[in-house]
Amino acid sequence: MPEINIAKNAGFCFGVKKAIEIAEEVAQNHKEPIYVYGQLVHNEKVIKDLEDKGIIFVEDINEIPQNAVTVLRAHGEPGTTYQILEQKSITKGKNLNDATCPLVTLVHNVAIKLKNNGYEVVLFGKHNHPEAIGTSYHLRGKGTFIVEEPEQSDLVVDYIKNNNFEKIAIISQTTMSVYGYKKLIDNINSKLNDIKFEEIPLSLKDLSQKYGFVDTICNPTKQRQSGTEELAKASDIVIVVGGKNSSNSKELYAKCREIGVEAYFIQSEEQLQKEWFVGKQKIGVTAGASTPDYLINDVADKIKDIIHGKKEGFAEIKI
Ligand code: SF4
Questions:
Q1: From the candidates 77, 120, 131, 148, which is the catalytic residue?
Q2: DSSP string spanning 35-73?
């Protein structure tokens, strides 16, 4: 009998959960419109549910009216966001509810400390990701050197060779691939003769080494990635559920492909196709940090329906 297994730690991370709770609570306690700057979570269905609760999402900060009750998402904002909001009389302790995840704030603090201790900081992340933009603000702003893929290690090597930096540190966006980060560092080290990047502990107590990297991928991301890896190795097919723009969901999909399991990246159960499941016995479902439990369950239920045309007679195990 085919079985459906759901990956350990699939779905919402605590940072995203908290941000949604904050937005819902603020909306409940205010009669006037609530503004959220940027996508609170990279998931269209969740956004639609929140819009139905009276929350207005804006991509352009200029659309937030003067004095409006405002929520900032978990990804972390550049200082300029707070400055613009302050000009609109939107401030913390008054009408600004900041849902920045503490683990993103930690990365900002790491970036600032490294910079203040003379390091040129290179960021492993996605150029247009809000978290990378927020972290870059604390470094060189738009001039921060961002590397997106381990295969782009040559760019980092050239950057190092073409500049006379005294100290260089590499940090990562919280949602990047653990494997990808390691591969990037290995690739860089293999291309430099006299320089070797070694880990600087996250405590940053000793900042005497000239070249180093700090492991700033957050624990929920690591746990989700290892849960998916375990699942992919034990499955005939894996369905990855996540928003189109969700960086960590794309990483999960890439991980499954890398392991060699048949995998599909979908946003909701309507995209499932019957032929994917023909002859499959071990069906895995995983989801990125922006996917709510109900969506994971909807996908699992639809798979049951596809295979049996009914929901009974199917073993479902949460691993
Ligand atoms: S992915 Fe990690 S850093 Fe980002 S919101 Fe979730 S817990 Fe926080």
A1: 131
A2: EEES-SSS-HHHHHHHHHTTEEEESSGGGSPTT-EEEE-
